[in-house]
Each structure stands twice: as structure tokens, then as C-alpha cells.
Design goal:
Shape: globular
Order of helices and strands: EEEE
Strand order of the largest sheet: 1-2-3-4
Strand content: 15-25%
Structural class: mainly beta
Number of helices: 0
Radius of gyration: 12 Å
Low-confidence stretches: none
Number of strands: 4
Distance between the termini: 32 Å
Helix content: under 10%
Mean pLDDT: 81
Length: 70
Amino acid sequence: VRAQLVPLGTPEGGPVSDLVRTPDGTVYAGTPRTGVFRSTDAGLSWTLFRDGMVRFGATDLHLAADGAVY
């Protein structure tokens, strides 16, 4: 198996500290300054995702067995 890096878009929230991909292909990126960003197009574009979260920074993301992202 040969791996290849492919440049994608990046969230505008600063450096990414963690990435999580859900079974449906949605990607979440945690940034320590701005929070969580979501991509539904394999990382080509990103939107800020708060969904009721109060804390702005996110350094660790976790994908639960039910598909929820924490």
C-alpha cells in the first residue's frame, strides 16, 4: 500500500490539534483557539461548528460508538 498526501483546505481557526472522521465521511477538526470545524466534502471546505458548545477551543475530539463527536 502506498500513501500519498493530498493538499486540502484548512479551517481558518489556527492550527488543527485533532481530527475525527465519522462513518458518513464528515470530518471534524479541533482548533485550540476557535473551536470545532466541520467538513462534509472531504476537507475541501470548512464551517465553524458549535452546536450548543460553550467552550471555543477544542484540542481533543472523540468519536463515540453511536457516531456522536465529543
